[in-house]
């Protein structure tokens, strides 16, 4: 299949990387190309430091014009039948699958994760598009029994309107699909700002979206090196009816304040501090497997990463020995190299944070069982690290590390460990391993988290609601519930019948 420029999609994506000025038209902001070309920002490969692209550094005027364009497209997009919207989403889904190798390569180049993980993420992104292509046809209203025979009462659901979405760098493809596919299915136009560290795969996905047949103005992409001005414009512009953001709790608080003057609808997926609990009746080998998944996927740079590992005393030594052996065998390197399990951290600030956490833990008596050091002098690679004899007072037990560091805390009292697991402002994800059915139910219901993995270290699915409690967010993404966040409920009462 060929695009508008007469090239195959593979050639087109490669050409865009080599000639990043071709990304300019994706934002759909007419009349700004000349100005955009004078302000640009760079995208680098975190594994090698190689310059990948220089993209237009868009400003508030660009954001405002993109919002105007989305508003102009909103009425037509919402007026299409659910089946028509569904068909376009299906086509986009298929194009992403057809060109998953290209997309995965771009993702690994700009983010660094191992190519196998990048391919899995692209498949996950496509799964969200497929799910919401199906859900678009299942937006239902309801009828209500009236109090008298001269009236009829019913509820309909309509798209909320233009949506501003801000996505993070750690899952730059799946987060794009997870945020905008339900909005598109509901009938909403989009203005998306991807993370400045990883904008290229989003641009490639939008190229495929254009080929899939989305009308002009329905999808609008904003490239910017700084998110503050973009976020403020999206939050303050009254034409934007909803904000969807994934990122830190600190930034989420700022966006919520910006949205408060207009009582704007928000969906936030924010920070986490996930506990991973291994009880004495657990299958220890299965728990080790699950901990490796929950802790070291994407080099620990996930919002649902296991941040605190609690292990009951009677299985503590066995777990630590087996876990440390497995962690020591993880290969670190460039994501394009074969058999690499751990890629680079996103930047040097991430390196500094993990080193601070290790120093603090060791100073308070923590023992490094493996890892603990940077790899190389100039890159952002870090050894997968296990620290035992961890205490609650250590920073690594209080803060989200967002890196390949696993702190293990010994516990004796099963009830107390659940209280400790809940003792945080965050409530995104939690994990535990146990076999006693009574314990499983009690712990699952007591943990104050929006998602709980029971005897599994991986639970994300397009069919399940993803989101947190407390200061880990508002709303849910994925599942049928994710669609509701982009719909307004309207009550109709017809009298005089």
UniProtKB/TrEMBL annotation:
Name of the molecule in the record: NAD-dependent succinate-semialdehyde dehydrogenase
One GO BP: gamma-aminobutyric acid catabolic process
Location of the active site: 269
InterPro entries with a match to the protein in the record: Ald_DH/histidinol_DH (IPR016161), Ald_DH_C (IPR016163), Ald_DH_CS_GLU (IPR029510), Ald_DH_N (IPR016162), Aldehyde_DH_dom (IPR015590), Aldehyde_DH_Superfamily (IPR050740), Succ_semiAld_DH (IPR010102)
Keywords: Oxidation, Oxidoreductase, Potassium
Keyword Oxidoreductase: yes
Aldehyde dehydrogenase domain location: 36-491
GO terms, molecular function: succinate-semialdehyde dehydrogenase (NAD+) activity
Family, as annotated: Belongs to the aldehyde dehydrogenase family.
């Amino acid at each position: 299949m060929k695009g508008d420029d007469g090239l195959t999609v593979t050639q087109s994506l490669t050409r865009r990387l080599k000639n990043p000025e071709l990304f300019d038209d994706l934002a759909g902001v007419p009349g700004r190309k000349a100005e955009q070309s004078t302000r640009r920002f760079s995208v680098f490969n975190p594994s090698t430091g190689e310059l990948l692209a220089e993209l237009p550094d868009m400003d508030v005027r660009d954001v405002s014009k993109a919002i105007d364009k989305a508003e102009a497209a909103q009425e037509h997009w919402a007026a299409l039948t659910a089946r028509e919207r569904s068909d376009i989403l299906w086509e986009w889904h298929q194009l992403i699958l057809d060109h998953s190798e290209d997309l995965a390569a771009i993702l690994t180049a700009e983010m660094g994760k191992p190519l196998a993980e990048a391919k899995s993420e692209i498949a996950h992104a496509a799964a969200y598009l497929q799910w919401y292509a199906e859900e678009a046809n299942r937006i239902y209203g309801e009828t209500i029994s009236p109090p008298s025979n001269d009236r009829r009462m019913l509820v309909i659901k309509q798209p909320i309107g233009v949506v501003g979405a801000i996505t993070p760098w750690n899952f730059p493809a799946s987060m794009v699909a997870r945020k905008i596919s339900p909005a598109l299915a509901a009938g909403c136009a989009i203005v998306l700002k991807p993370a400045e560290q990883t904008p290229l795969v989003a641009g490639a996905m939008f190229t495929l979206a254009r080929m899939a047949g989305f009308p002009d103005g329905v999808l609008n992409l904003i490239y910017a090196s700084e998110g503050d001005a973009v976020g403020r414009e999206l939050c303050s512009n009254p034409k934007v009816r909803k904000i969807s953001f994934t990122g830190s709790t600190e930034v989420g608080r700022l966006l919520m304040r910006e949205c408060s003057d207009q009582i704007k609808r928000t969906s936030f997926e924010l920070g986490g501090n996930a506990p991973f609990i291994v009880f004495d009746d657990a299958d220890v080998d299965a728990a080790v497997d699950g901990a490796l998944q929950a802790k070291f996927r994407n080099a620990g740079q996930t919002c649902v990463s296991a941040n605190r590992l609690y292990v009951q005393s009677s299985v503590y030594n066995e777990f630590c020995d087996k876990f440390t052996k497995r962690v020591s065998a993880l290969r670190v390197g460039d994501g394009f190299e074969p058999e690499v399990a751990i890629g680079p951290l996103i930047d040097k600030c991430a390196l500094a944070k993990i080193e601070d956490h290790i120093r603090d833990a060791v100073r308070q008596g923590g023992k490094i069982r493996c890892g603990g050091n940077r790899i190389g002098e100039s890159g952002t690679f870090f050894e997968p690290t296990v620290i035992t004899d961890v205490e609650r007072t250590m920073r690594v037990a209080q803060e989200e590390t967002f890196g390949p560091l696993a702190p293990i805390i010994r516990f004796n009292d099963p009830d107390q460990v659940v209280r400790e697991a809940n003792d945080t402002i965050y409530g995104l994800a939690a994990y535990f391993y146990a076999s006693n059915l009574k314990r499983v139910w009690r712990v699952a219901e007591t943990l104050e988290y929006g998602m709980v993995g029971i005897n599994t270290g991986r639970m994300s699915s397009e069919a399940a609601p993803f989101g947190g409690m407390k200061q880990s967010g508002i709303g849910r993404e994925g599942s049928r519930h994710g669609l509701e966040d982009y719909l307004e409920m309207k009550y109709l009462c017809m009298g005089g019948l």
